[in-house]
Specification:
The complex is a heterodimer of chains A (369) and B (293). With 369 residues, chain A is an alpha+beta fold. Chain A is elongated and about 75 Å long. Chain B has a domain of 185 residues: Orthogonal Bundle (MetI-like fold). In chain B, 73% of the residues lie in helices and 2% in strands. Chain B contains twelve helices and two strands; from the N terminus they run H-E-E-H-H-H-H-H-H-H-H-H-H-H. In chain B, strand 1 and strand 2 form a beta hairpin. In chain B, helix 5 crosses helix 7. Chain B is globular, with a radius of gyration of 23 Å. The chains are: A alpha+beta (369), B mainly alpha (293).
């Protein structure tokens, strides 16, 4: 167990390409941090720098207070779980689990005890004498996790460990990882491009884009208060609707509609407006409504995603499947649920009208997870 | 297994006929001829032959000279196989550590293989030439008066050196591609699990390389036993005298220089049996330990 410090860390490749630039993250002991972002955002590179598999171009990585920039991967006291499991194909499951301990001179009896414990936790006992090729994908993934657990390292590093599994197995393994991490309490860094995985696993999320941190925060905070348009469009499914609007005093012009905000936003004129699909409601009656031209509908069972246009801007609304869609339809949204972003920089603009609803929302006990 | 349906039961035999014809003409028929003539004492000028039973074999196996050549062949084969595999592996492991998937370097290194083996052999032998050979001159600096073709041990040294030298690129390419086929993430996982590079090599790299190494072991032994004929021939220049030669060269000397076709046939049958036994041994006892993915 240890805290991990990532200070001003950059990765610049020989050709001058910057994969990660000046990243700062402080990870507390026992915390589960998820690095999330689209492919090429530098999240794996960052993880690999912590692991010691990539050199650190600039900055400093500390594990348990010790600077590890020049420490060999084997001496960093970390364990890593790889996307394609990276099991040793010529060794049995037992040998796979024991390999790291054996090389560290752990006594035989201790190895046996730890392997037995890990095998019990991961329900691998029946497979200890098998070679990896005789195992299914989920079993291989559990062996890869077991290999990390037996070492009892200061930190677990997960590099997209679930992306090779099918959808159903991914959900159950996700739960298993969460449960295991809670149980052993080891500091973890988890890399994924899947925002749902990120939301459900993380104590804190780190959203990366183009080698830079867009936002760090608890999953629900990131969801409800995305710091940039990038985070807004990346976290949450369906993605937040981002449309352009115009602020005039306490009124917002959104396409053909004019919405009274009841409070002022500390900016005027053109602005990017964010609307979560599930905050949109079918509007009955008059006033503050957005005329909605329905394009097509995706039925999800529990709800339906209605794609259409407000003015000349595309919008998705998550609506109940029980209420029939009127024609023509119009949508409404509580002004407190509106997000504003600077059109040029994409940065969030906080305003007084939104604050009210947030406390209540954040208190919902991980309903999304 | 996929079963293929043929319209006529003879069709499959027709398809393998060309292959079988080649094997028959170039392997079975000469083998049968060799076995047959090994029981006869052939007149060198073709005026008939006398059945002598196993005495050709008895002569060969009982001769002190044959035994000495057999001993040299064993030493020669063992050294050439070990050294060419060992050096090839060392170079491949070192190259692999630098390459990390850079295909330009890999291509440059593999170009060596494009040099025709006889050219490589000839170049190797020029290094040991009595008059212009740089290695002979180099040895002279240390007071070693190297006389390749005259001194038994000097000749043996040159033979082994050139044979090994010729085989290294071949081994290098196979081992390098074997190394590059080990998944990067497996190596990285091993790097986290084991600090010592040497230990990682023995416990991770080598076992994963075993299929390649096993294949190369067979190829290299066959090479040392048979394909080094050309090297030896250029080195001893057809006049073996008391220079070291291998069993294959002895077969050629007795048959085509000594005109003892019966004795030569008996020796080649002995070689055939040796290869047969070696092959069975390798597949039964070594391949079992090899892990295929």
């Amino acid at each position: 167990m240890a805290s991990i410090g990532i200070r001003d860390v950059s990765k610049i490749y020989n050709g001058g390409v910057t994969a990660v630039s000046s990243v700062n993250i402080d990870i507390a002991d026992g915390e589960f941090i998820v690095l999330v972002g689209p492919s090429g955002c530098g999240k794996s590179t960052l993880l690999r720098m912590v692991a010691g598999l990539e050199t650190i171009s600039e900055g400093q990585v500390t594990i348990g207070g010790r600077t590890v920039n020049d420490v060999d991967p084997a001496d960093r006291d970390i364990a890593m779980v790889f996307q394609n499991y990276a099991l040793y194909p010529h060794m049995t499951v037992y040998e796979n689990l024991a390999y790291g301990l054996k090389n560290r001179g752990t006594p035989r009896s201790e190895i046996d005890a730890r392997v037995a414990e890990a095998a019990r936790m991961l329900e691998l006992q029946p497979y200890l004498e098998r070679k990896p090729r005789a195992l299914s994908g989920g079993q291989r993934q559990r062996v890869a996790m077991g290999r990390a657990i037996v070492r009892k390292p200061s930190a677990f590093l997960f590099d997209e460990p679930l992306s090779n599994l099918d959808a159903k197995l991914r959900v159950s393994m996700r739960g298993e990882i969460k449960r295991l991490q809670r149980r052993v309490g080891t500091t973890s860094i988890y890399v994924t491009h899947d925002q749902l995985e990120a939301m459900t696993l993380a104590d804190r999320l780190v959203v990366l884009s183009g080698g830079r941190i867009e936002q760090i925060g608890r999953p629900l905070d990131v969801y409800h208060r995305p710091a940039t348009t990038f985070v807004a469009s990346f976290i949450g499914s369906p993605a937040m609707n981002l449309v352009s609007g115009e602020l005039h005093g306490s009124k917002l012009a959104l396409g053909p509609a004019l919405i009274d905000l009841g409070a002022t936003v500390p900016t005027q004129g053109a602005v990017t407006v964010g609307l979560r699909a599930e905050d949109l409601r079918l509007h009955e009656g008059a006033g503050g409504s957005l005329p909605f031209r329905i394009d097509y509908v995706e039925e999800l069972g529990s709800q339906r995603l209605v794609h259409g246009m407000v003015g000349d801007q595309a919008m998705v609304a998550a609506l109940s499947s029980e209420i029939p869609l009127p024609e023509p339809a119009s949508l409404s949204i509580a002004p407190s649920r509106l997000h504003f972003f600077d059109t040029a920089s994409g940065q969030r603009i906080d305003w007084s009208g939104e604050a009210a609803g947030q406390g209540a929302l954040a208190a919902v006990p991980e309903a999304v997870a | 297994m996929k079963r293929v349906q043929f319209s006529s039961p003879f069709l499959p035999y027709l398809f393998i006929a060309p292959q079988m014809a080649i094997i028959f003409v170039f392997f079975y028929w000469p083998s049968v001829q060799a076995i047959q003539s090994s029981f006869f004492l052939e007149d060198p000028f073709g005026f008939g032959s006398t059945f002598v039973g196993l005495s050709n074999y008895a002569d060969a196996l009982g001769s002190a000279q044959y035994q000495a050549i057999a001993r040299f062949t064993v030493v020669f084969t063992a050294l050439v196989t070990f050294l060419s595999l060992g050096i090839g592996m060392l170079l491949a492991v070192k190259a692999d550590a630098v390459l990390k998937g850079s295909s330009t370097y890999k291509t440059l290194l593999i170009w060596v293989y494009a040099i025709a083996p006889p050219v490589a052999g000839l170049m190797g032998m020029m290094f040991f030439d009595q008059h212009i050979g740089p290695l002979v001159k180099f040895a002279a600096l240390f007071g070693w008066d190297m006389k390749v073709g005259l001194n038994y041990y000097d000749t043996a040294f040159a033979m082994i050196a050139v044979s090994v030298w010729k085989q290294i690129p071949y081994n290098f390419i196979f081992i390098l591609s074997g190394l590059q086929s080990i998944p990067v993430s497996v190596r990285e996982a091993a790097a986290i699990d084991c600090r010592s590079g040497v230990r990682r090599f023995w416990t991770m790299t080598l076992p994963l390389l075993a299929p390649t190494a096993f294949f190369l072991l067979i190829i290299n032994m066959t090479y040392a036993l048979f394909d080094t004929f050309g090297v030896i021939d250029v080195m001893v220049k057809d006049k073996a005298a008391n220079n070291p030669i291998t069993l294959v060269y002895k077969v050629y000397m007795d048959g085509f220089r000594g005109n003892d076709l019966g004795g030569s046939s008996a020796q080649s049958v002995i070689l055939m049996i040796v290869v047969f036994v070696l092959t069975i041994f390798q597949f039964r006892f070594i391949e079992r330990r090899v892990h295929y993915n």
